[in-house]
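User: Sequence recovery, please. Input:
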């Protein structure tokens, strides 16, 4: 499902996994707005905390260019309870070679509720996203190969096609 109504971009299916971006202001070429991730119908990210849209898109492009670095059969196969008990280790800097953590986007909108989203691929390219926050129990979502990448491509395509807010100086 894709929605470009108004200034909203939604790529994916909110009931399974989706990314929603709402550009709101343009200040000297820096576009600010809301970036939310939807996992199993639950919102991750703070809709009241603006984010730099271009920075988020840059991280999405980085994943698209080099998603192979997120392969780890070992971590992909870990039981959810084990991941839950090791969540702090997943956030450690030296562990980021095998997964993408939402915090890497520099997104303060994911801090308020302690939102954690971790992206891992297995050897066949199947994807697993682990989600946890202060308000949501830990859960995981499995996507087909390139599922996350296809959602990111769709977000970028929709963003490139939409009129942006007028610049303010």
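Assistant: Recovered sequence (169 residues):
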């Amino acid at each position: 499902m894709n929605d470009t109504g108004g200034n909203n971009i939604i790529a994916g299916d909110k009931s399974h996994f989706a990314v929603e971006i709402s550009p709101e202001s343009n200040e000297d070429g820096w576009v600010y707005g809301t970036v939310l991730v939807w996992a199993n119908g639950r919102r991750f990210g703070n809709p009241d905390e603006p984010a730099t849209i271009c920075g988020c898109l840059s991280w999405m492009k980085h994943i698209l260019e080099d998603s192979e670095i997120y392969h780890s059969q070992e971590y992909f196969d870990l039981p959810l309870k084990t991941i839950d008990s090791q969540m702090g280790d997943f956030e450690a800097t030296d562990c980021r070679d095998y997964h993408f953590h939402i915090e890497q986007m520099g997104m303060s909108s994911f801090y308020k509720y302690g939102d954690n989203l971790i992206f891992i691929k297995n050897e066949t390219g199947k994807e697993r996203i682990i989600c946890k926050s202060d308000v949501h129990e830990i859960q995981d979502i499995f996507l087909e190969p390139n599922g996350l990448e296809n959602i990111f491509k769709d977000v970028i395509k929709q963003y490139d096609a939409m009129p942006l807010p007028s610049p303010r100086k």
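The CA atoms of residues 85 and 95 lie 15 Å apart.
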